[in-house]
Write the structure tokens for this entry.
Amino acid sequence: MGYELQSCSSEDQCLRGVLLDLMMSPNALSWPGADGLTVEDVLAAYIPASEQRRVPDQEELIRRHPELTPEIRTFFTLAGSQAGHRSRQGTG
């Protein structure tokens, strides 16, 4: 584990790598039937996992990766609004 920030071509790609790396940690989640999961599925599960303290929350991510602060804030804002939209539709 330990995503290499130097290998990123953009901050968005770096953030995705950091989040995916954390979601693959033993404490994050178990993925029953994970064969069909996409990267977007795993990233969408990041917010609930952070709320359950299985992975770092927004402020901890910013502390660990200050160079990705705008991308982290955008990710949490967009993911939160998408989750709210899904639950208003009865699918979340």
About this structure: The mean pLDDT is 77. Residues 58 and 76 are 7 Å apart (CA to CA). Helices lie at 11-23, 39-44, 46-51, 58-64, 69-89. The two ends are 30 Å apart (CA to CA).
